[in-house]
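haha ok so turns out i had the wrong file open the whole time. this is the CORRECT one, sorry everyone. sequence first:
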Amino acid sequence: MVDAVGEAERQVRENALPKARDSARERVPEKEEAALLGALAGLVESIGELAGAVGGRVTNRGTARTYTGAGRRLRSEAGNLRGDEDETAARSR
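then structure:
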């Protein structure tokens, strides 16, 4: 699990972040702005699901609560991003 999450982080850092930070690149097309928020929501949602699932598999009860709470917070934030995606999509119509 650690390797898979580390690989996802590496992919974002090596592929997406440099493109986002490159001021010489063109702006994100308006029709893709909502899609990018949706992709971010999906990523956060997946990590939240992973954290929640791990909570039931760790030995220490305190750690289990930590993972379960983190999963809940991450899934909540993913929901916020989904709302932002909807608002952005409505603005671009």
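The chain has a mean pLDDT of 95.
again sry for the mixup
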